[in-house]
């Protein structure tokens, strides 16, 4: 971790920020019984070290009408087409995540859609990208685990 040592206070600050990145430093300070200046310095230290990278906003896609999630495994005709295919995938806003992978697929994507019909349109547009041999789609029935803290706590225990 770039030779930076994180102590229990750093861990507690990260724990709070993972729940809500917008938590005011004064609130964190009160909860941890330290000064807001200390929180600011600690967060800045972790940002400078690249441990904290920006902040993120979590949207409730279901409330926005995009409750359909599918995972698409992509087989390429040739692996040298990977960059081109990723560039085309990035032009499809419903493709929210894409990974270059080993194993069965060359690329693995997460897609959000409004409905089965909408997902079909998106999948067909992916299938039409030059360089894609074929795809396999898996429909998510439910997101059962989405926990940002468990791994962080394991990492802290290892330090």
Account of the protein in words:
With 159 residues, the chain is of the alpha+beta class. It folds into 2 domains: 8-57, Arc Repressor Mutant, subunit A (Orthogonal Bundle), CATH 1.10.10.10; 68-140, Lrp/AsnC effector binding domain/regulation of amino acid metabolism (RAM) domain (Alpha-Beta Plaits), CATH 3.30.70.920. Helices cover 40% and strands 19% of the residues. The chain has 6 helices and 4 strands. It has helices spanning 8-19, 25-32, 36-48, 82-89, 116-127, 149-158; strands at 68-76, 95-100, 107-113, 132-140. A 4-stranded antiparallel β-sheet has the order 2-3-1-4. Strand 2 and strand 3 form a beta hairpin. Helix 1 (8-19) runs antiparallel to helix 6 (149-158) and helix 2 (25-32) packs across helix 3. The chain is elongated. The N and C termini lie close together (10 Å). 14% of the residues are buried.
- The CATH topology label of the largest domain is Alpha-Beta Plaits
Approximately what portion of the residues adopt beta-strand conformation?
15-25%
Instruction: Give the overall shape, derived from the CA principal axes.
Output: elongated
Poorly predicted residue ranges: none
Q: Which CATH class of the largest domain is shown? A: Alpha Beta
Global mean pLDDT: 92
Describe the sheet with the most strands: 4 strands, antiparallel
Structural classification: alpha+beta
* Count of helical stretches: 6
N-C termini distance: 10 Å
Over the alpha carbons, how many angstroms does the gyration radius reach?
20 Å
Helix-strand sequence: HHHEHEEHEH
Can you tell me the CATH superfamily of the largest domain?
Lrp/AsnC effector binding domain/regulation of amino acid metabolism (RAM) domain
Number of domains: 2
> Quick one: how many beta strands?
4
Strand neighbour order, sheet with most strands? 2-3-1-4
The CATH level-2 architecture of the largest domain is identified as: 2-Layer Sandwich
Q: Percent of residues in helical segments?
A: 25-40%
């Amino acid at each position: 971790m770039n030779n930076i040592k994180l102590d229990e206070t750093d861990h507690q600050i990260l724990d709070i920020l993972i729940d809500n990145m917008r938590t005011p430093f004064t609130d964190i300070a009160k909860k941890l019984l330290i000064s807001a200046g200390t929180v600011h310095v600690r967060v800045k230290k972790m940002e400078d070290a690249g441990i904290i990278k920006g902040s993120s906003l979590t949207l409730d896609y279901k409330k926005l009408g995009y409750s359909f999630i599918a995972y698409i495994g992509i087989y390429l005709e040739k692996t040298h087409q990977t960059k081109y295919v990723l560039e085309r995938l990035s032009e499809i806003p419903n493709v929210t995540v894409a990974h270059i992978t080993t194993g069965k697929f060359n690329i693995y994507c997460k897609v959000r859609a409004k409905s089965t019909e909408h997902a079909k349109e998106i999948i067909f547009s992916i299938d039409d990208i030059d360089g894609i041999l074929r795809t396999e789609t898996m429909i998510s029935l439910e997101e059962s685990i989405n926990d940002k803290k468990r791994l962080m706590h394991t990492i802290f225990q290892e330090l």
